[in-house]
Design brief:
Strand content: 15-25%
CATH superfamily of the largest domain: MutM-like, N-terminal
EC number: 4.2.99.18
Mean pLDDT: 98
Shape: elongated
CATH architecture of the largest domain: Alpha-Beta Barrel
Structural class: alpha+beta
Enzyme class: lyase
CATH class of the largest domain: Alpha Beta
Low-confidence stretches: none
Domain Formamidopyrimidine-DNA glycosylase catalytic: 2-106
Distance between the termini: 32 Å
Radius of gyration: 20 Å
Order of helices and strands: HEEEEEEEEHHHHHEE
Number of strands: 10
Keywords: DNA damage, DNA repair, DNA-binding, Glycosidase, Hydrolase, Lyase, Multifunctional enzyme
Number of domains: 2
GO molecular function, one term: zinc ion binding
Strand order of the largest sheet: 5-7-6-1-2-3-4-8
Largest sheet: 8 strands, antiparallel
Helix content: 25-40%
Length: 250
Amino acid sequence: MPEGHLIHRHAAQQHADLAGRTVRASGPQGRFDARPWDGRALTGVEAVGKHLLYHFENAPTVHVHLGMQGIFLRYDDPGTPPRAGTRLRLATHEVAYDLIAPSRCEALSPARLDALRHSLGPDPLRADASPDEAVTRLTAFRGPVGAAVLDQQVWSGIGNAWRAELLFLAGLHPNARALPPGTARRLWETAVTYLALGRDAGQVVSDPNAPSERWVYRRDHCRRCGTPVQTWQLAGRTAYSCPTDQPNHP
């Protein structure tokens, strides 16, 4: 599933291409009725965690969640026929985007949009995210930090790859509990810094000097010290940690 850095990257590119323009909206697959948005001005595209929101003049917000299978295809020639399975196409005279196989593509009323926003924790890539709220939500979580950071109601936008790498960078074992506020704030600041690197690069970046490498995620041995990486199931996903660099203190 695309994590928050890629969703923000999609939002930035699509906002640059589509915002302030009248768009032709269609649902080639037949599973999404795009007529309410066809011929409307798109006012903005924003990311909130792993969610994309498309705002239009005089039409409801469109909510997209890519899930595990969803992808976007971009065409410099908007006359290019849509690919099979395209749920939604948004096009101007200069560019077209096809949305294929999302888990969600739906209209949101103002009330449902507000409910979605309130259901999500602070997003490290949003300028309006409150560090104090991020610390409060993390320290209040009754469970291991490795479960907390995957809970989108605690922090939004972080998935399994970022969980592994951020906790390594912070020297925290995924099973650690009851984090002091200072530790929680340092982890948040690490997330803010590194997710921005990932957004700009289009991939998880946990070492700016080796942007395509990982410290522990999907590795047999820690890239820093060579210790065998430990793995287990935590919050429904495989957790990764280095017992040397991330000691598990009971």
